[in-house]
Design a protein that fits this description.
The chain is an alpha+beta fold. 47% of the residues lie in helices and 18% in strands. It contains 7 helices and 9 strands, in the order E-E-E-E-H-E-E-E-E-E-H-H-H-H-H-H. It is elongated, with a radius of gyration of 21 Å.
């Protein structure tokens, strides 16, 4: 039997996941509850060589970070993530070996949301925004954790995180998502086709980020003296399109893996 690694992280805000969630990613179990992530992961091989165990645990840390990055894209709510703690390697003979890892990534900010629940005349719930939001977050987190080793998936999730951290350049970071997908999939037309994204939505993000004279945009030097702050509606629209692109690319990777086709 292989050893089992137990790792624990804490994150803020603790309500980034509103309910307890259990994800199965890469043969490992991640339990998320009230600002804590606990991972149980099988570990085979000799942990003695320098860096072997650290590299294994660092890969798990990246999975956890991917799960939170995915939640962030849905909430536009940034987070802080601790380094792994309470780290234990359990041997089949019952031995417990404690070890220490370096601190992980840290981010910050916040946002809130309002929920709606609606029932029909018989009392059956026909609309529950909280339930739907939680379900979508878990599904996206699962997908992000599975595909975080894909360079483009990693890049676009981190670009969205940068948009949250750096609101003064938000549209620049959101545009990076469009750019990365066009580069990854062989061009804008190819990306729209592969991801099922309309040319209208694709161009709209480009207009907001590159054409409109917005302080958060890409070509501010071309609009000296006439820049204005993006409206809340414009920022909401840009985030929605960027989020749609991220979700579409993760679905694309899942389909490719399921069918066994090469997408490299």
């Amino acid at each position: 039997m292989p050893d089992e690694i137990h790792l624990e992280w804490s994150f803020e805000p603790a309500d980034l996941f509103e309910e307890r969630a259990e994800l199965q990613i890469g043969g490992c179990t991640f339990v998320i509850d009230a600002g804590t992530v606990i991972c149980r992961a099988p570990f085979e091989g000799d942990p003695a060589p320098a860096g072997v165990l650290w590299g294994f645990c660092n890969a798990l840390h990246q999975r956890v970070n991917a799960v939170l990055l995915a939640a962030q894209t849905l909430e536009h709510k940034a987070y802080t993530l601790s380094g792994a703690k309470n780290t234990v390697r359990l041997s089949p003979d019952g031995g417990r070996h404690f070890f220490v890892l370096a601190e992980g990534l840290r981010l910050k900010t916040s946002l809130s949301s309002l929920d709606v629940q609606q029932a029909d005349g018989a009392g059956n719930v026909i609309l529950n925004t909280r339930r739907d939001r939680i379900g979508k977050r878990i599904a996206l987190a699962q997908s992000a954790g599975e595909h975080i080793t894909d360079p483009a998936a990693n890049s676009i999730l981190r670009s969205y995180a940068a948009a949250v951290r750096d609101p003064g350049n938000e549209l620049i970071h959101l545009y990076e998502i469009r750019d990365a997908l066009a580069d990854r999939l062989g061009g804008e037309h190819e990306a729209c086709t592969a991801l099922g994204i309309s040319n209208t939505k694709w161009r709209r993000l480009g207009t907001l980020a590159s054409v409109e004279p917005l302080q958060e945009g890409r070509h501010r030097g071309q609009h000296l003296g006439v820049l204005r702050a993006a409206t809340p509606e414009e920022l909401t629209e840009a985030r929605s399109i960027a989020r749609m692109m991220i979700e579409a690319y993760l679905r694309y990777l899942t389909r490719a893996n399921t069918s066994g086709n090469s997408w490299a």
